[in-house]
Amino acid sequence: MKIISSTKWTSDEHCLFNNACIRYGWGRWREIAEMIPTRCEIQVQSHAEKVAKKDPWKKTLLGTDDKLRRMQELQSEYLRAVRSGENDRASAIDREVLALIMYAASKRLKLFHWKNNLLEQSSLLLVAF
Question: What range(s) does the SANT domain occupy (predicted)?
């Protein structure tokens, strides 16, 4: 039986949450809760809502579109390709990893610009009144 904690999330629990989101994908709370021995499914879902509200880009980066999971797969494929001397395959994996990194960076940059525009608009409204 699971011993459920009702205190603030520890850094270890948060790390387990991040890893489980990468492994199972955002929104699969039952599977994620099984990876965190001190939290139930409802606590995991509540924590995810708070994480997404605080840092909306994390939802995208932690499994919504499976980009990080693909990065982990590519890391393993790359090591196998290098060890077996498949340089062409390793180069192709390098290009795909770079594309995924650029994708993640563009998502974060778009969010950054959106936040800045929102702040500028709100400050203009305050000046107007």
Answer: 4-56
